[in-house]
Amino acid sequence: MEPAAVLPELLAHAGDDHARVAVYAAGRAAAGTSPTRLAELLDGLLGASSGVKVTSRKEAARLTVRFLPARRAAALLARIAGDEDSHPDVVTAAVGLAIGLLETGEVWNLLETAAASGTREAGAAIAHASPLRVARPHRPRYARLVALVAASPHRSVAGQAVAALPDWVAFAPEAADPVRLAVCGLSPDPGWKAAAAALGKIAGSGLPHPVGGGEPGSQFHRAVAELLAVVRSGDDPEAEAERDLPALQRVRFLSQGIDGEHHELRAALVRQLAGEPALATTRVALLRRSVGLCADLAELRAALDALVAAHEGRPGLAASTASALRDGSRHGGRVPDPAVVLEAARGLAENGARVPGMFAVALTTAMGRRFGWPAQWRALLRELRRHAEPEVRDAALVAVTHDE
């Protein structure tokens, strides 16, 4: 018997206890059935108001995509998804299958409806697709689909879409807007940290302004500016039972997420935070991370000078920064030229002021321990123990070149 001849009989079991086996076997019979006849049978199965199991409907949707011409398959999927009586799991299956038929215009309305107002599962299916699954000509439009899902009332699905958008903004720059909005929306939402991480990824992506980077007008700069406006307005909820300075916390989190190699992004944020007392420690942390022991002498001196300038009138902050500078410099990658660091530390020591002297002690202690206290570092330590500022002398006396 021809496989096509048994297909109706197999599909007839779609509602009984043999449904699972019968419908899966129908796949082999469908391969030998003409598209017109197959479409008629599958359409009847998918359109049945009752008597067909959900798993059977889902498998029928898969057979539709597998064996029917793309346009006919797309039309059937659109009808399934648009039917108010369709089971949510069947609609979700139709949406997932439709992603493979983007070359047919019929599926876009289906997907756009699912993205804007569909089920949680349908939105998740859209957000889960990677750019590699979508042909390049369709990626800009699909990126806008993911951006639609980012506005979903289902928080978990919206969060998935926001986390996915950094992979899509290269194809549709406006798709970065929902990420910024998710960071700046100050309603209680545990997903804001994932959104902030996504925004940082976009900023550090290397994409041209205004998508990437942190210069004025960029998505990152705009987000920080919106949050700073709340901080400066005095409207940031403070020391409440359930909330405490949400805007301030978001700026801090954004600053902490800047990777070491993103020097320009870090420098842009340093400039943006200048003059905001509530974020002085955050700005100082950024400046401290800008002190690179692999830099040349001019660059290292410039980074240290900026760090010193940020501590004017902040002796307590200078002490904690010196400790962090010391501890952070003791480890890490290879220092290509310790003589450069030594010369920079000498310059700080010769300045004569308290803050530069404390930072000189920090570098001297870190480098001395790191390299086994060579003679030149021991000599600098002796000089610092005779510094004009007592706090510098005290700090230098704490460091010892050998434990008795």
Low-confidence stretches: none
Helix/strand order, N-terminal first: HHHHHHHHHHHHHHHHHHHHHH
Mean pLDDT: 89
Helical residue percent band: 55-70%
DSSP summary, beta strand count? 0
Q: What multimeric state do the chains show? A: single chain
Determine the number of helices (DSSP H or I, runs of at least 4 residues).
Answer: 22
Radius of gyration: 31 Å
- Percent of residues in beta strands: under 5%
User: How would the global form be characterised?
Assistant: elongated
Question: What structural class should be given to the helix and strand makeup?
Answer: mainly alpha
Summarize the helices and strands and which ones pair or pack.
Blueprint: H1 3-11, H2 19-30, H3 35-47, H4 54-67, H5 70-82, H6 88-98, H7 106-117, H8 120-128, H9 139-149, H10 155-164, H11 177-184, H12 192-203, H13 219-233, H14 246-256, H15 263-273, H16 280-289, H17 297-309, H18 315-329, H19 338-351, H20 354-370, H21 375-384, H22 390-398
Helix pairs in contact: 1-2, 2-4, 3-4, 3-5, 4-5, 4-6, 5-6, 5-7, 6-8, 7-9, 8-10, 9-10, 10-12, 11-12, 11-13, 13-14, 13-15, 15-16, 16-18, 17-19, 18-20, 19-20, 19-21, 20-21, 20-22
Structure notes:
- This protein is mostly helical.
- Among the domains are: 134-289, no CATH class; 291-404.
- Helices cover 64% and strands 0% of the residues.
- It is built from 22 helices and no strands.
- Helix 19 runs antiparallel to helix 20.
- The longest helix has 17 residues, at 354-370.
- The chain is elongated, with a radius of gyration of 31 Å.
- The mean pLDDT is 89.
